[in-house]
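My hope is that you will study the protein record below before we discuss the fold together.
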Amino acid sequence: MDKGLQKETEQKRENVYSAKSEKSGVSGLIETIIRKFRTVSYLVALALLYFLVLLAMGISTTPGVYLFMYAQEATAEWWQLFHYLSLGCSVMFGYFLYGLSMIFVIPLFNFLMPFRVKPFRGSYFSLASVPWYFHNAFIYVVRYTFLEFFTPTPLNLLFYKMMGMKIGKHAHINTTNISDAALIEIGDGVTIGGSATIFAHYASKGYLVVEPVKIKAGATVGIKATIMGDVEIGEGAMIGPHEVVMPKTRIPAVEPKT
């Protein structure tokens, strides 16, 4: 790169540690407030997020609570052992009802948010990072409370699709280690191995960088492999087990053997 152009590019880089936003208008004012009062802003966002997550979990728990109360009343006159057995079974069936409900309730909350996660490069404390933060938190609450029980099944594919991931026909995802679902595209016949990790973001020199991941038709990602943000994997390519694909990597397509 020409030195003059490189210097100009560096000058245009945002100072992510600045307390003042480079944006103008209302968005710039809000972002400046976020940066000046980082701890307070973080706690406010966290409180709102916890409220939404707990509300979603409460809604999803309702069918299970109803089942438990029904079992409690219906078996109240039973012999004690069978009464407790029915209650125990109702608790576990209720947990699975919770999981099934979360598969649909969380994507609904994500859809109702007034913002969408988009590619960006900037400060963690910025307006652009808020959708990214909420989107991933919604994914994680399902991942850590239930999704393992539905992976790999059509239900985990349905959940990711409803969260915005583009998934082709006959794709197979055998992992829950996925972040930034709305920025991930998986082609037809792609296989994602067990415990593989895919996320469309990374950190670089103080910046949060959020860029799409594309895994094209017929590609295979081995078990416990890691795919980072701003990666494209060509058709038919294979990522080996435990392999790490770094940001900005472009893996060419592999011609099928004749």
Notes: The mean pLDDT is 88. The CA atoms of residues 213 and 231 lie 5 Å apart. The first helix runs from residue 3 to 12. Helices lie at 3-12, 25-36, 38-74, 80-112, 129-145, 154-162.
